[in-house]
Design brief:
heterodimer; A: about 120 residues; alpha+beta; about 15% strand; B: about 900 residues; about 50% helix
Chain lengths: ~120, ~900
């Protein structure tokens, strides 16, 4: 039997590659706090993507360390003090490159699933 | 520091951030119409394991390990506070092991491993002459042989030699006269050793020649002599100083720590102040009968000791025919070349110290085994806690790290305590330091020792904590959490492992106890050897004679006789006598060689005053001892001992038949032969463990300057007093009288005869003391280990015992159940230990006297002691098992 910790941590790391991109994409629309990012992702994915807080905050802090986002404490409309994240210029560049890599991967995976590349295109 | 402060602020911010997240989630749910409480619960569930989130998030910041280490340290200290008994036991155990090992290492390091203060000391060798192979080499070498060696050899880059300056030497310093060791050396000696003076210059390099060479009248001082006599005056170089009233010009001062010879045959401490002058050859150096020099040489880089020895043997065979005396030719026909460093420590001392070092190592091993056993039990007791941590998300490596930190903290504290223990142990060693140990034990625990100590500590920590931690991490989490009571599934394997640890401890302890027993029997046997003289109420003053002050005078008339007259009238003195050297004090021996009817007779010569017999209570077998009528003008007489008489008396079975006979060709210069007037019983002379040598005693008042026997009396003499009061109480008055007789005697050293006897078996006593400590500690540790295991087993099986009693088992059976387990462990341990002790006993053989290394009775006694104390310790948990109240035990379910 595997200890539970292992399973739990696996789930935390599952989305890592794409989560960064999704967060940066969400922040394109304006500064947002952690809870707001979760809500935005859920809404925009039609309730499909449920981001674990256990992955979100490590990801946010990692992005900040990379310099792709910057954070500041602000009041929400309901007077709750919260930490807002804002995308930086280098974050936007990173988003562009990750998005294009994502497109490539989707295309490649799609091609495999459809049964190999079409002749003449290769 | 600011980094940690910032770290703390970031941690608080992260907490606030996640808290804000929670608040917003709750607010959203409340907005959607959920009740406050339901919203909070749902939001919390959605959020997940908050501490884990914080942990993982903080990991992205880096710099987490110092925090974790601090956490683990804090945790370790909290653990120690919570169960101080456990912590004290583990720390005490390890401190004992580390302390013993470090103390022994300090001694071994000082004696065996300390590098000589010479350049490339491994290439320095001693060259000595001997007769046949395996014969004991002679110390002295004649100049003519050294000259030939220098010319003919290809093995050595330098051949140097030296000779102790005759008699005690007195250096006149700025604040009074001090006694120094003096050595006359060949000018190339320091170059051979590869050392240079710290101040001034070396002797001028020139071939050894007559006393009028370039180096004549110059001296080099040792650091100690320079500091003590001249207060480290740097202007001393070039100045004139006086040694034995003769003037010398100081040309150099040696650096501190430099000492040559490293081990002087004179038993002065090796750090005594020294002076070096150069050898001037005299007329006597033109014959080979005059052989006063010891030779030290430096091997060429490409030559091994073996090659050099072979070459030197060949050369010596060519030289030997030049000896005119056939006896000397035979005695000096071969040469032995040996490492200088190796010659400094006697082989048996080396072996003995290594044996003690091994004993300390064994104790350390026992301590480690015991600590492992304790930590293992602890690990079993903490299985639920570890499972809980695992369930809460602690990773394996984190748990192991925590255990390692705990082990490190425990052994770190133990190391500190152990160092303290080692220091006090070394102080103990110094207080019983045997006379043979010509080694400065000033006991600065040096860097090497500290490094070894740290190594031992880390090793101990890893050894004793890795195992329980490893086991704990491998154990599955769920059963540990599910079961209410302590573990029983892995209990059996765990039990067996701890049993084998106890068996190992018992076996190792037995080897130490057996060696200790052998040494105690040795000391007991030595104490019971009949010495042949009384030892109580005798005070001995060791006098170094400033003979330069008495040149042209008769010491006996001008110094000894007046001194004796005064001392005899001192209040509380029953008898007082002079003796060239009192029994068992290792100062010097005078060897007498006589030839009778072509047969050689060897004996020890002692110069004594008549009252010495009354002072020591020597027993007369026949004839008389010296008395007042034996003067310089009466018939010269001698007294011999029983060993002498039984070898050389006309009738071997009747020692008295020697009385009235001439002592062969032994005569004073007036050509009047000595006549034997008495036979004394044997005395133990040099070593208690050695049988008496043939001895000839000459009456001090009968000798006079110019005779063969007079010479030895001019360097040193022992004054012995039989006192009515406590001997120590006489010292101040005696010192007064001595100073009056000659100011130089103010530095005389005093001993009681009892002390001298005790010192003579100092190395056995030291080894016995150390093994008492080691063996006792080992016994204590293994018994504690046994007790700990049984107490744990009984606690584990309380319920089972309760059931047994409830079902009608007699309580005696339960007692027997536990005792049987203890008995099995003890028996296996003692059997294994007996075999081990049998194998290792030969390492202490060099220390033993009057008992065989494989003495069955000692081994049996040690085994019995171990079993008895083991069973006694087992009785406590066994009785507890037998007294289990079934109702209480079952209710605990």
């Amino acid at each position: 039997m595997k200890p539970r910790t292992q399973q739990y941590q696996n789930r935390v790391e599952l989305l890592q590659g794409t989560l960064d991109m999704l967060i940066l994409q969400t922040l394109q629309w304006g500064p947002q706090h952690g809870y707001g990012i979760v809500q935005a992702l859920r809404l925009n994915s039609g309730d499909v993507l449920q981001v674990e807080t256990g992955s979100l905050y490590p990801a946010l802090h990692r992005l900040e360390r990379q310099g792709w986002v910057r954070s500041e404490w602000k009041q929400t409309e309901s007077k709750q003090r919260a930490r807002y994240y804002r995308i930086t210029a280098s974050g936007k560049k990173q988003l562009v490159s990750e998005a294009s890599r994502w497109d490539q991967m989707v295309e490649a995976i799609g091609a495999v699933m459809r049964g190999g590349p079409k002749k003449g295109e290769a | 520091m600011s980094r940690f402060w910032r770290f703390g602020r970031r941690k608080a911010e992260l907490q606030e951030e996640i808290d804000a997240h929670l608040q917003m989630a709750i607010a959203d749910r409340v907005d959607r119409g959920e009740s406050e409480q339901a919203a909070r619960q749902a939001a919390l569930r959605e959020l997940g394991n908050v501490p884990l989130i914080e942990d993982v998030t903080r990991q992205t910041w880096g710099w987490l390990w110092p925090e974790r280490l601090l956490q683990d340290l804090g945790y370790a200290f909290r653990q120690m506070r919570r169960s101080p008994g456990f912590a004290v036991t583990v720390i005490g155990t390890l401190a004992l092991g580390i302390g013993a090992a470090a103390a022994m290492f300090t001694v071994v390091d000082h004696v065996l491993l300390r590098p000589l203060p010479f350049r490339d000391a491994g290439r320095l060798v001693l060259i000595r002459e001997r007769g046949a192979k395996d014969a004991k080499p002679d110390w002295g070498v004649p100049w003519l042989d050294i000259e030939q060696w220098g010319l003919q050899n290809h093995s050595f880059s330098q051949v140097a030699f030296s000779e102790p300056m005759s008699g005690p030497n007195f250096l006149e310093g700025t604040s009074g006269t001090m006694q120094v060791d003096g050595l006359a050396v060949s000018p190339n000696l320091f170059a051979t050793l590869g050392i240079e003076p710290a101040l001034g210059r070396d002797f001028l390099q020139e071939p050894v020649g007559a006393e009028t060479g370039k180096n004549a009248g110059t001296v080099i001082l040792s650091d100690a002599a320079w500091k003590e006599a001249y207060g480290a005056d740097r202007a001393i170089v070039g100045k004139s100083v006086r040694i034995n009233r003769k003037s010398y010009v100081v040309v150099g001062v040696m650096p501190p720590g430099l000492d040559f010879p490293f081990d002087s045959s004179f038993a002065f401490a090796s750090s005594a102040p020294k002076v070096w002058t150069t050898i001037g050859l005299s007329n006597s150096d033109t014959t080979r009968a005059w052989a006063p020099y010891s030779v030290v040489a430096r091997l060429r880089r490409s030559t091994s000791i073996k090659t050099a020895a072979a070459e030197m043997s060949t050369i010596q065979r060519r030289i030997a025919p030049a000896y005119t005396d056939p006896r000397l030719r035979k005695e000096r026909s071969d040469v032995v070349v040996e490492s200088y460093a190796g010659s400094l420590v006697a082989a048996n001392l080396k072996e003995g110290l290594l044996a003690l070092f091994a004993a300390a190592g064994v104790l350390w091993l026992i301590a480690c085994v015991n600590a492992t056993s304790l930590l293992l039990a602890r690990g079993a007791a903490r299985q639920r806690e570890i499972a809980m941590r695992g369930a809460l998300g602690a990773s394996r490596s984190r748990i192991v790290q925590q255990f390692l930190v705990e082990g490190l903290v425990l052994s770190g504290v133990a190391a500190l305590l152990g160092t303290g223990l080692a220091l006090s142990a070394v102080r103990l060693v110094r207080s019983v330091k045997p006379a043979q140990l010509h080694v400065d034990l000033s006991t600065h625990v040096n860097v090497t020792i500290l490094a070894v100590l740290c190594g031992l500590t880390v090793l101990t920590a890893l050894a004793s904590s890795a195992w329980p931690a490893f086991l704990a991490v491998r154990a599955p989490i769920e059963p540990a959490l599910k079961q209410g009571g302590p573990q029983s599934g892995s209990g059996r394997r765990h039990n067996r492992m701890r049993s084998s640890l106890v068996v190992i401890e018992v076996a190792l302890s037995l080897t130490l106890l057996a060696s200790c027993g052998l040494l105690l029997r040795t000391v007991y046997a030595l104490r019971r050897v009949p010495l042949g003289y009384r030892t109580d109420h005798i005070l001995v003053a060791h006098l170094a004679i400033p003979s330069y002050q008495y040149s042209g005078q008769n010491l006996v008339v001008n110094l000894y006789q007046p001194l004796l007259d005064r001392v005899q009238h001192l209040h509380g003195v029953e008898a007082a006598g002079l003796m060239s050297t009192v029994p068992l004090s290792h100062t010097f021996n005078i060897h007498l060689q006589l030839t009778a009817n072509g047969k050689r007779i060897a004996a020890v010569l002692k110069l004594v005053s008549p009252d010495i017999q009354r002072t020591f209570g020597f027993k007369m077998l026949a004839g008389r001892f010296f008395n007042k009528q034996d003067t310089a003008n009466s018939q010269p007489v001698v007294v011999v001992n029983r060993a002498f008489a039984s070898l050389y008396a006309p009738d071997r079975h009747d020692p008295a038949s020697l009385i009235g006979k001439d002592l062969f060709n032994f005569r004073l210069k007036k050509n009047v032969p000595f006549v034997v007037v008495g036979i004394v019983d044997n005395q133990r002379q040099a070593e208690i463990g050695e049988p008496s040598q043939p001895e000839v005693e000459v009456c001090l008042p009968q000798i006079s300057p110019g005779s063969y026997e007079y010479e030895p009396s001019t360097t040193a003499i022992d004054l012995a007093l039989r006192t009515a009061r406590a001997p120590d109480a006489m010292i101040p008055e005696l010192r007064q009288i001595l100073r009056h007789a000659n100011p130089e005697f103010a530095h005389a050293t005093f001993d009681t005869m009892n002390q001298i006897v005790e010192d003579s078996y100092g190395s056995q006593r030291l080894a016995a003391h150390l093994l008492e400590i080691f063996g006792g500690s080992a016994l204590l540790l293994s018994i504690a280990g046994l007790y700990g295991l049984l107490a744990w087993v009984v606690a584990q099986r309380t319920r089972e015992m309760g059931v047994r009693i409830a079902l009608g088992a007699p309580r005696g059976n339960l007692l027997w159940l536990v005792m049987r387990q203890a008995g099995a462990m003890l028996l296996i341990g003692v059997a294994a230990g007996g075999g081990l002790a049998w194998l290792t006993a030969r390492f202490v053989r060099s220390y033993l006297y009057g008992v065989s290394a494989h003495d069955g009775r000692t081994l049996a006694a040690a085994g019995a002691l171990l079993c008895a104390s083991g069973l006694l310790a087992a009785y406590i948990p066994a009785r507890r098992a037998a007294r289990v109240d079934p109702i209480v035990a079952l209710r605990a379910e």
